[in-house]
Write a structure and sequence with these properties.
Elements (H helix, E strand, L loop, with lengths): L1 H25 L3 H42 L13 H5 L2
InterPro entries: DUF1622
Protein name: DUF1622 domain-containing protein
Pfam families: DUF1622
Length: 91
Amino acid sequence: MRLRLGRWLALALELLLGADIMRTAVAPSWSDIGKLAAIAAVRTALNFFLQREIDGAAAREVAATQRSQSSGGGAHGSNDGGDSLAERTAS
């Protein structure tokens, strides 16, 4: 649930940045361009750290799932390393 919310927030930040760029492209002034640069920097930083948190949480979730499967016995929890993190967290 938390990962899904984080992904939606990251998408919303990207859409808002695109909207600001389009608004500035219609009637640009130096003041508007400066504001856009500041907004873009803040939103890009927020999106970067949010994505880092999402990736870390997804990796912890995958590791916990693998630990719980391997503690259950058998080879069900074994991972040959062939899956990428994106493939494992796509569900």
